[in-house]
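tool=predict chain=A
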Amino acid sequence: MSFDRRQFLIAAGSVAAAPALLSCSRSGEPRPPGVPLSAFGSDSTAEAVTAGLDLAGRTILVTGATSGLGLETMRVLALRGAHVIGTGRTLEKAKEACASVGGRTTPVALELERFDTIVTATDLVRTLGMPLDGVICNAGIMALPKLEQVYGLEKHFVVNHLGHFILVNRLLPQIQAAQQGRVVVVSSLGYQWAPEAGIEFDNLDGRRGYEPNRMYGQSKLANALFSLELARRWRAEGSAATANSLHPGIINTNLGRHFAEWKHVATKLIGWTFMKSIPEGAATSCYLATAPALARSSGHYFENCNPVIPKAGKHMEDLAMAAALWQKSTELTSRYLA
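tool=predict ok
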């Protein structure tokens, strides 16, 4: 691919501007009441937010543990003594990732776009016969350049949302059996790119007006709404389990592998001006999964290890839409939930 200097400068400017707008700390905006604030921020690392914690005896499952944020999350949790179940798209990749970190780990094959592998993986986790202290829904895809479908549905929605919906629902007994089980869902500030109406229930196949960022945004909105409805259900049941979502930051990982070549070039040259490192990007997931202060905090959205009220008008706190999404997701995946 070739482009002249002027094209590159325009491209680089757009690549820098969009993440900068999305990744601003928004520290001056109101916080949700009653949710503890931490002393951590955008430059905190996963090791820093878990320093001093002894996670021995806890079991935490991390999806997408073979690279990037998932691998760092697994490494740090295992470092602190947790037994980490690390999933990968193949057993070979999961084994390689688990072998690369210290501590106790268990590799499991799980492909989020193949629901049968989620059934197999969760059946295996059940046979381990232990409660799950945490499930970190980390794996995902972004910005597929053209429409792809799985089970007749748009692929971002399937992989980023429905796969994790099945996973968590099949593991609910194990999560609730823990003293204080936690579900941590990696969403994104990309929720702002979702359709204006929010979840387009009449366009889940993506055929109408497919645009990569738009569909990615819808799936990230779905991630947050899933955790919101799960938290509501657990509160209604009087469960001690919690569910929260988060934006990890803008990080150069395999998530961006589908970007155009000019974006990769621009990222290498100027990405350091606005991007987090992988250890910084994994911090909020690790904080939500382990912080003692958050034992009673559920149904919230976090950035930089602190609760944030999402941007108004973007449906992130739309309880009716969250309930409707849960119902539709159940309908679409019912044969895999039992």
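Residues 303 and 333 are 30 Å apart (CA to CA). The beta strands are 59-62, 83-88, 105-109, 134-137, 149-150, 153-154, 182-186, 242-247, 301-303, 306-307.
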